[in-house]
Amino acid sequence: MSLILNIDTSLETASVSIAREGKIDAMVTNGIQKEHASFLHVAIADLCKQASVELSRFDAVAVTKGPGSYTGLRVGMAAAKGLCYALNKPFITVSTLEAIALSEIELSKKSKYDWESALYAPMIDARRMEVFTAIYDENLNEILSPTAMVLNENSYSAYLEKKIIFFCGNGAAKFAALPLNANAFFGGVSEIATAISILSHRSFITQQFTELAHSEPLYIKEFYDGK
Alpha helices, DSSP H only, in 52-118? Predict the structure, then answer.
């Protein structure tokens, strides 16, 4: 059994959750991005009290590694690493893009349509017409590695000619405003905490831990602060 503390401060809404076997038992969120730093440690303490779980009982601590808000990533990473060091617990990092993609994959499974051959392109707003993005298949295999992309009507065209792509995340709206291929669909991801709990559990089961001392957030481009 895995009992994992999951931390996400990478996007506009931050979350702290306690998950058993990849399923959330308890969670608190904060929707004010500039307050993620002050929210985080209080949230962890309150959540553990609410769930009657001592920090020492966690099997691991997981955090989103990015990409995302530069400040938010630093806040979350520092807190998670500090807890792992103090408690001598395994450290797990989760890709924000993978979490967004998995959230959309899970949503598409509930649809009456057969999307088994579709691709998934999570998009994180990086100001103006730029996004942090990647492409995954339905099994979360990486088709396009995480990258920064300035959007135009030809973005993703080589993939859209062959496959349906679900675009999701907070950067998808500005791509939807461009003239697009008929294979472009736009998803409805509203939260990624559930996906983070699934991914952190998978990493725990397969012992895919992140080395504590030299781990860093995945910034891609360091100027982004999410504001």
Answer: 70-87, 96-109
93's tokens: 């990092």
C-alpha of 63 from chain center? 9
Write down the pTM of the prediction.
0.94
Q: Tokens in use for 45?
A: 């303490």
Name residue, tokens 């030299």.
214
Q: What share of the chain is helix, strand, coil (3-state, %, to 5)?
A: 35, 30, 40
- Which of 125, 124, 11, 7 is closest to 72 using CA atoms? 11
Per residue of the chain (227 residues), what is the pLDDT tens digit? 899 999 999 999 999 999 999 999 999 999 998 899 999 999 999 999 999 999 999 999 999 999 999 999 999 999 999 999 999 999 999 999 999 999 999 988 777 666 778 999 999 999 899 999 999 999 999 999 999 999 999 999 999 999 999 999 999 999 999 988 899 999 888 899 999 999 999 999 999 999 998 899 999 975 545 54
Domains with residue ranges and CATH for the chain: 3-95+192-205 (3.30.420.40), 97-186 (3.30.420)
d(C-alpha 82, C-alpha 101), whole Å: 28
CB 189 within 8 A of CB 169: yes
Quick one: how far is CA 111 from the chain centroid? 22
